[in-house]
């Protein structure tokens, strides 16, 4: 925005990246109109990122932003390869101890996380190495997880089940089940074990459930039901991004705590991919399309502002 003068008496700097100005009003001398900075994400967009070294689908993936993410395992076949993303390229690092696909009960950031599920092994990542730890009470893949470290988190769903388990750094504990058991394919998340979202799932359902630390509650459905997509979150069920999915979708939807809104589509429609990051800085990587050519190395980065600038009108 050009020629911004003041924000209720103080100079404006870097408005496009400063959400502290939410609630303020200013006069734009270029357009000759008053503007207001309002809470809520502006519609973002996807752009191409660095390609994976190894094309894969149905893998584990997590991270806090589109410049710090991890991918591990996956198919076709059964892979152990692990890669880290730095915002421009992927680097191969130490492999999983147990190769596997459909290990989508995962959570964490690129220096500290957990992957769990088929073929039974649960592994903890410390930023350098994987270590095998206590197994789930109920072995399953194709679920989802929430948490930001390898010492606290939650996994849920998978293998058409409703089971939910929390992790305290040493043991898994069964807690209240999902209302609807299903394969989630990684479509769910959050950054704590007390606030998570389970989104969509098999067979191409639109069901959304919210976890409050004790129980699951059904909330408003996705606009388009899907499975084998990916998600990212700002750390609470109040801000959530859902993208891609079967069959060969590019659709992206944004959750604001009460409803889903369709926003900018991905450049490449696909399914069985993984996601990382937040609703302002997300990453979608790998996956496959039903028409071929099999597992891909494609990476896309999502960027959105944390607020919207709106023109004020009179009536």
Describe the structure.
The chain is mainly beta and 315 residues long. It folds into 2 domains: 6-39, no CATH class; 45-303, Kelch-type beta propeller (Neuraminidase), CATH 2.120.10. Helices cover 0% and strands 42% of the residues. The chain has strands at 6-7, 10-11, 25-28, 33-39, 45-48, 60-65, 68-72, 82-85, 90-93, 105-109, 112-116, 122-125, 130-133, 144-149, 152-156, 164-167, 172-175, 188-192, 195-201, 205-211, 216-219, 230-233, 240-243, 252-255, 260-262, 274-277, 281-285, 299-303, 307-311. The strands form 8 sheets. A 4-stranded antiparallel sheet has the order 5-28-27-26, with no helix packed on it. A hairpin with a 4-residue loop joins strand 3 and strand 4 (33-39). The radius of gyration is 20 Å and the shape is globular.
Topology overview:
Blueprint: E1 6-7, E2 10-11, E3 25-28, E4 33-39, E5 45-48, E6 60-65, E7 68-72, E8 82-85, E9 90-93, E10 105-109, E11 112-116, E12 122-125, E13 130-133, E14 144-149, E15 152-156, E16 164-167, E17 172-175, E18 188-192, E19 195-201, E20 205-211, E21 216-219, E22 230-233, E23 240-243, E24 252-255, E25 260-262, E26 274-277, E27 281-285, E28 299-303, E29 307-311
